[in-house]
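Friendly challenge for the regulars: who can give me the structure tokens for this chain first? No prize, just bragging rights.
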Amino acid sequence: MDFGVGFLSNNVMLPILDFFYGIVPSYGLAIVALTLVIRFALYPLSAGQIRSMRRMRVVQPVMQKRMKEIQERYKDDPSKQQEEMGKVYKEFGNPLSGCFPLLVQMPILFALFATLRGSPFSDVPYNINLQILPEEQIAQIQPQAFTSPPHNIYVADKVHFPVAAVLPGGSKLGVGEKTRIDFQTVSGKPFREIQVDYPDVDVAPTWTVTKGEDRVRITEDGVIEALQPGDVTIQGNVPGIAANKGFLFINALGRVGAVDKETGAINWDIVGMVLFFGISLYVNQLLSGQGSSSNPQQATVNKLTPVLFSGMFLFFPLPAGVLMYMSIANIFQTLQTFILSREPLPENLQKIVDEEERKSGAVAGAGGDGREALPFEPGRKKKAAQGND
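First reply, four minutes later:
Bragging rights claimed.
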């Protein structure tokens, strides 16, 4: 039994999605609600990660200095060196501790991502690899049924089934032979029978030969005829019932790409979400302190990161519904970072900050108060100025 991403998608994400769609029949609002529910559920974990990053950002210079001193002082005594480093980790915290909350979140976020990439928001592809053999080798073929991994398919609003593509005779055919690609649920019910029960919704699969077009012929109802020996790949696409539905400024939740492949027109709704994603990523970077660095090369990399990440979706496009989810999630993350950045630091870390400020003030002298706002503490400079009045 699958207890991974597929399990979470089918048993957690889709019930929540159906629940909200039942309250407000809008798949766009359902995406918003699903994203917020998952983000609020993960709030304690992501808050722990943000706090850990914030603390490490504060103690990193002192910690690195202390580690270097220990390595030099006990270079001939590895056991003592390990013991002293353990004391440093106990005092300041282990940098790797912030990775645990992220690791726990990842399966849930992957499941959410997979849910929004599939039915009902997007067309679902089934890739089937065939091997066509010469006529004289037909006798050597041992029929062995082929079944693809199942995908959750919506056949109507709030009605969905896990459906797999099946080749009863297997994926090896002899030249001149015919077979049919059937779709059926994991319980064995033919997909055609389900379609009959919901005649108002068009979820009939379409077929495309993506490799070896001259080696097979395929009809609209999925009948394959083998023509020439070689390898063949056939893609069957089952339509997503909400792929062409819009929401707010989004013309179609299943639309993919900033440029329409058929007309060449620019999809401004996609472009707008990509730009917004980049801006929200940059703002979140500033609030978390990742955008600032004393290393010029690292500072340049930090500035380019939002551009590279957002620009990636222009060359490796995602459905509009997924981009909307990522934008909403980024807004939530930015607000969370801002709220947590205003929390007071632990006493031992605050002493480090005060000591660094005292040193900076001594260097600055009469030229200024020497205080600089931490990236994690918006408004610190303002408070310091008020204290000097």
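The first helix runs from residue 5 to 23. Confidence is low (pLDDT under 50) at residues 362-389. Your move, everyone else.
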